[in-house]
Write a structure and sequence with these properties.
By secondary structure, the protein is mostly helical. The protein has one domain. It is 78% helix and 0% strand. The longest helix has 30 residues.
């Protein structure tokens, strides 16, 4: 009896671990792509029969997002080093030729403020538990699909290479919309940038620069919450969290490298078609009772 019990227990935990691993891989691979990583995680979790509750999912996303953040920092390490060194040299060594780096950092900070304020408000009031569900994801993925088709159209006339204050304000405001699961943060912010005639490559690169401080702040708050309050109050499956973290880290680095090679051909519309198809499938599954929200 006991060997059978322990064998079943170990198998159940192994299957649970594989589900967490799959969630980490999904997060990591979809984070750099304009298809909404948070939305895909909610979908995969629904397929698995809701491994995580809404509140636990939010805390889990903080952990796997931290892994994605580290991967993106590693990918952009050269550019980040140039910005940090240039800003330091401009402010403290009087090197006027480094002013563009300083201005770029200021634009990143400016663009981060709107989502920072709204994100903090959502965190304090626990508002995310009200909209982190499969129905919202299905609707928002449809919106993301339309945005990607719109972005593809904007790309044809967008060629400006320098990020301006107007870009930062528009993209920063758009990042607030990207807090919804199913809305691609990089997709919506880049749509606003390219719509303002900023080139596709520069818009996405600035979008990822905006992601770094916003994600870092969210990770600090989320980890503090997990440590001091236990997060959702539910037991944390530590091996699953560790496995998902590693999977997300590796998958994000591979995906971001792939993505910037892909957009050289400006084939953004295919991401739009994909999101529209997934959205319709999700909404049909909700309507037929397969997915319960």
């Amino acid at each position: 009896m006991y060997p059978c019990f322990w064998g079943g227990f170990i198998m159940d935990k192994f299957i649970e671990f594989l589900k967490y691993l799959a969630l980490g891989l999904v997060q990591g691979f979809t984070e750099p792509l304009p298809i909404s990583s948070s939305g895909h995680m909610v979908i995969v979790d629904a397929i698995f029969g809701n491994v995580l509750s809404a509140s636990a999912m939010n805390n889990f996303q903080i952990i796997v997002n931290l892994a994605s953040l580290i991967a993106i920092i590693v990918y952009f390490r050269k550019r980040l080093g140039e910005l940090i060194a240039g800003t330091w040299n401009y402010l403290f060594k009087g090197k006027k030729e480094e002013k563009p780096s300083f201005v770029y950092v200021l634009l990143i900070i400016l663009a981060t403020i709107p989502a920072g304020i709204i994100g903090l408000t959502i965190k304090i009031l626990d508002l995310d538990t009200y909209y982190t569900n499969i129905l919202v994801v299905g609707i928002c993925l449809f919106i993301t699909g339309l945005l990607m088709l719109l972005l593809d159209r904007f790309t044809k006339t967008a060629a400006r290479e320098t990020v301006t204050w107007k870009d930062a304000l528009w993209m920063g405001g758009a990042q607030v919309i990207g807090l919804l699961p199913g809305i691609s943060r990089s997709g919506v912010t880049s749509t606003f940038g390219v719509g303002n005639k900023l080139s596709l490559d520069k818009a996405f690169r600035f979008s990822f620069m905006m992601y770094i401080p916003a994600s870092l702040a969210a990770a600090v708050m989320g980890i503090a919450d997990l440590i001091t309050e236990g997060g959702s109050g539910e037991p944390i499956f530590v091996p699953g969290y560790i496995g998902a973290f590693v999977a997300s880290l590796i998958a994000t680095y591979i995906a971001v490298s792939f993505f910037f090679r892909l957009i050289k051909n400006k084939n953004i519309r295919y991401f739009g078609y994909y999101c529209l198809i997934v959205s319709v499938i999700v909404l049909i599954l909700i309507a037929t009772g397969v997915f319960v929200w």
